[in-house]
């Protein structure tokens, strides 16, 4: 992996700000739109994870999706399913959202911190959609060209 930070924007949410209600389990629970700013010309695919950094289980995974064809924009409201035809049959793995996006929904009155990470990779990652984030990261480790993160809070 080179050390280039992948710059991206999460539409409706600045780094360090509060999650818009529509992206949460208390709203419409839809995945946000991402605009990729400095994608490497060597990128073949993208992957996105959403983790709850405040959860008792370290970096608790809410969402993991990989094999999105390299692009400068990932549309919002990605539908549930192991395979996502609108994204070149990208795979959604196993997390709090089982083969789907599951936005923040901490216990009432508790503020949790969440992290979106977007990865650019030099290939497709050939693992089952029944894989978890750790399986994806292990297989992707030598293929990650860039990665970047945005932090958000929700209570």
Automatic annotation (TrEMBL):
Signal peptide: none annotated. Pfam families: PBP. Gene3D superfamilies: PEBP-like. It comes from the Bacteria. NCBIfam families: YbhB/YbcL family Raf kinase inhibitor-like protein. This is YbhB/YbcL family Raf kinase inhibitor-like protein.
């Amino acid at each position: 992996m080179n050390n280039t930070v992948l710059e991206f924007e999460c539409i409706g949410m600045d780094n360090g700000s509060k999650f818009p209600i529509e992206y949460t389990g208390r709203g419409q629970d839809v995945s946000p739109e991402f605009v990729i700013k400095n994608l490497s010309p060597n990128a073949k695919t993208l992957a996105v994870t959403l983790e709850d950094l405040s959860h008792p289980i370290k970096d608790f995974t809410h969402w993991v999706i990989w094999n999105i064809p390299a692009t400068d924009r990932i549309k919002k409201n990605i539908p549930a399913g192991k395979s996502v035809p609108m994204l070149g049959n990208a795979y959604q793995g196993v997390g709090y959202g089982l083969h789907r996006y599951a936005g923040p929904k901490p216990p009432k009155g508790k503020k949790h911190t969440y992290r979106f990470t977007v990865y650019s990779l030099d290939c497709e990652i050939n693992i089952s959609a029944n894989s978890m984030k750790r399986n994806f990261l292990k297989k992707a480790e030598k293929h990650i060209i860039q990665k970047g993160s945005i932090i958000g809070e929700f209570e």
